Amino acid sequence: MAVKIRLARGGAKKRPYYYIVVAQATAPRDGRYIEQVGTFNPMLKKDDENRVKLDLDRCKHWLASGAQPTDRVARFLDTAGLMKRTPSNNPNKAKPGKKRLEREAAEAEKAAKAAAAKAAEAAAAAEPAAE
After folding, report:
1. Within 13 Å of residue 33, how many CA atoms lie on the same side as its CB?
2. Can you say whether the dihedral through the CA atoms of 104, 106, 108, 114 is positive or negative?
3. How far apart are CA 40 and CA 51, in angstroms?
4. Which of 8, 56, 85, 118 has the least C-beta neighbours within 10 A?
5. How confident is the prediction for the chain on average, in pLDDT?
6. Are the C-beta atoms of 44 and 23 separated by less than 8 Å?
């Protein structure tokens, strides 16, 4: 069965605290796990040494045994120097969607028509004054 190193949520409402656990892939998020190998407290500042605590020996053991870390845990292991994580790059993520592009094109067309009508109105008003 596939084994994962992942986060299990603890803590109170709006006060998250995560346990870094080794669990079977089919086990519930906060349910049964094989072993707890660390903790993560996102409420602490990013430069605080108590934000992420890992048992490095056990993490090494589970990685050698074939356990697959989730993306967030892979970031922690990368900063600890246990594994190399390649950052993902999705250049299309920041681009606007099809509906937004259509909406902006329609608004630009509407603004161009309004400007043309205003210019025609101004030209028509200027003609009788010139005569």
Report:
1. 19
2. negative
3. 6
4. 118
5. 90
6. no
